[in-house]
Amino acid sequence: THIRLVHIPPQSLVLIIGGTCNVTKRIHHTGGTETLFAYSDTKLNNTTQVMDEISQHLTSQGHTLLFTHIPPVNIRKYNYFLHSVKQTLHMPMHDTTANQQHELEQATARLNGHIHELNTANGVGNVRWDKVFLKARGAGRKTGEYFCYSSMYDGVHFDSPTKDKLLELLVQRIRGILG
């Protein structure tokens, strides 16, 4: 976790936007780089602990704090993107990404649940960026939701229309807070 302390004017709205970089790992090998996810309660607990500390510190100083929910990422799509732009020549770990993807989505949901609790406790509501990517699946008793990554050109970063949609969600939430 990288924390940079800066002066914040009194009674400010502080916005924290995060990603999955605290729970994923880049593996460097002779053929290039891959991004992997290895589930770790320690990493998740450390991340939520840092969020708690930031929240307690800033709210105790009279600031309004808003965390955005973490959008999902697609490990396989990102690794194939790295391969397509010649940042990696081969992907020895690519066979393990399906299970990693499932675990990463669960870990992201757990972090988002914690973010939801913090925002609710801080009285600011939630910016549900993760919901932008959820799509309905199935019919009848076999329904559910899944993440759709088509609006991410590399599995991590958003295309322009999605960026605009996410920004609008954020602006609406900030307007709601500021009144």
List the helices and strands and how they pair.
Blueprint: E1 13-16, E2 24-29, E3 32-37, H1 41-60, E4 64-67, H2 75-84, H3 97-122, E5 134-137, E6 144-147, H4 160-178
Parallel strand pairs: 1-4
Antiparallel strand pairs: 2-3, 5-6
Broad structural category: alpha+beta
Helix content: 40-55%
Major sheet details: 2 strands, parallel
Unreliable parts: none
What is the percentage of strand-forming residues?
15-25%
Instruction: Tell me the overall shape.
Output: globular
Number of strands: 6
Strand order of the largest sheet: 1-4
| SS element count, helices | 4
Key terms:
single chain; 179 residues; alpha+beta; two-stranded parallel ribbon; two-stranded antiparallel sheet; 4 helices; 42% helix; 16% strand
Description:
Helix content is 42%, strand content 16%. By secondary structure, the chain is α+β, with helices and mostly antiparallel strands. The strands form three sheets. A two-stranded parallel sheet has the order 1-4. Strands 2-3 form a two-stranded antiparallel sheet. Strand 2 (24-29) and strand 3 (32-37) form a beta hairpin. The longest helix is centred in the middle third of the chain and has 26 residues, at 97-122. The radius of gyration is 18 Å and the shape is globular. It starts with 12 loop residues before the first strand and ends with a helix. The relative contact order is 0.17. The model has no long low-confidence stretch (mean pLDDT 79).
Summarize the structure in short.
By secondary structure, the chain is of the alpha+beta class. The protein has four helices and six strands, in the order βββαβααββα. It has helices at 41-60, 75-84, 97-122, 160-178; strands spanning 13-16, 24-29, 32-37, 64-67, 134-137, 144-147.
